Task: inverse folding
């Protein structure tokens, strides 16, 4: 590679740092407890309120660890599986347009 001396080392250093982050993310995504970060803020269900409080801890950790590397999107806790073209289109809208809980 051309360029200034040391530039290649800087580039490789950044790539190595990114590899470490990606490996850590891959490891954490294999943990089903740590990857189920969903929001259900307006529930009257005790189980849902407790789960939401627990998930806030994981969301805060995700923001602290990965916010500068990844765009983190908060999604609602769904009551059913996303299957079929219509539900997939509906769900995918939340990935592009920020989710706003109904109050």
Result:
């Amino acid at each position: 590679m051309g360029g200034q001396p040391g530039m290649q080392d800087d580039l490789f250093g950044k790539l190595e740092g990114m590899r470490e982050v990606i490996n850590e993310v891959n490891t954490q995504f294999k943990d089903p407890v740590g990857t189920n970060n969903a929001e259900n803020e307006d529930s009257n269900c005790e189980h849902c309120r407790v789960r939401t409080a627990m998930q806030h801890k994981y969301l805060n950790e995700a923001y602290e660890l990965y916010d500068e590397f990844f765009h983190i999107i908060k999604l609602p806790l769904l009551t059913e599986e996303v299957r079929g073209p219509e539900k997939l289109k509906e769900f995918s809208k939340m990935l592009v347009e920020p989710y706003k809980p109904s109050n």
The first helix runs from residue 7 to 29. The two ends are 56 Å apart (CA to CA). The mean pLDDT is 77. Helices lie at 7-29, 32-35, 46-66, 85-96.
